[in-house]
Specification:
Structural class: alpha+beta
Radius of gyration: 25 Å
Strand order of the largest sheet: 1-2-4
Order of helices and strands: HEEHEHEHEEH
Largest sheet: 3 strands, mixed
Strand content: 5-15%
Number of helices: 5
Number of strands: 6
Helix content: 55-70%
């Protein structure tokens, strides 16, 4: 069954947003699990020169990392559900109706997700930078160098920086994809309700649009 290019693009964007949401939530959860449930964002790291280990002096409330993970999971669930709906409608019903009300809901959800993804990206960016600033520059030229050091038990910091950096990147990629989704929804809303049928046919055209430009006169 052939689907129109615009709908295929939208499905690809929703699938990509789902993957980005799962990646962000997984990476933040892994880092939090390696630090005994503590949230390293905006935390303080201390380097013990005598023992040659890094210890966590203070950390943020665990709910801060839970918030970032929850936003990404909500985005992933919404995208997964919407993708299943599109596939179900195209395979069983044979058409996908995009009414004006549905497009308004999509634009509203797009605005909500963009807002919370922006907050999540800023939390990951600023929180990671504040954490890295607590490392003594005399021993660490870059924050990534702390991953190669031993950490005090029970902490495991072998991939804390790369995981937080990848989680932040995934959030910003997700944010960019939702900008495109919002643009597509706004474009379709301007055109009015659209119905896609199997075979890639756009059923939103009116009868006047399908009439020939030159009507042949009837034969006497």
């Amino acid at each position: 069954m052939a689907l129109p290019l615009l709908l295929l693009l939208e499905l690809a964007l929703y699938t990509s947003c789902f993957i980005c949401g799962i990646v962000t939530a997984a990476l933040v959860t892994i880092v939090q699990g390696h630090t005994g449930g503590k949230c390293l964002l905006y935390g303080v790291l201390v380097y013990n020169e005598s023992a040659k280990v890094i210890d966590v002096s203070s950390s943020s409330y665990p709910s801060l990392c839970y918030f970032v993970s929850a936003i990404s999971v909500c985005v992933a669930i919404f995208c997964f559900s919407l993708t299943l709906y599109f596939v179900y409608s195209s395979c069983l019903d044979g058409d996908i109706r995009r009414e004006r009300l549905w497009l308004n809901v999509t634009l509203g959800m797009c605005g909500v997700f963009l807002f919370f993804l922006l907050i999540s990206g800023c939390i990951l960016k600023i929180g990671r930078d504040k954490l890295c600033e607590t490392l003594p520059q005399t021993h660490f030229n870059r924050c990534e160098d702390a991953q190669n050091m031993n950490w005090a038990s029970p902490y495991i910091g072998s991939k804390f920086y790369s995981s937080l950096h990848s989680a932040e990147t995934s959030v910003w990629v997700n944010f960019f994809f939702w900008l495109i989704i919002g643009g597509l929804a706004f474009f379709q809303r301007r055109k009015g309700s659209v119905e896609y049928r199997s075979g890639g046919e756009n059923a939103g055209a009116t009868s006047s649009e399908t009439e020939p430009f030159l009507n042949r006169p009837g034969r006497p």
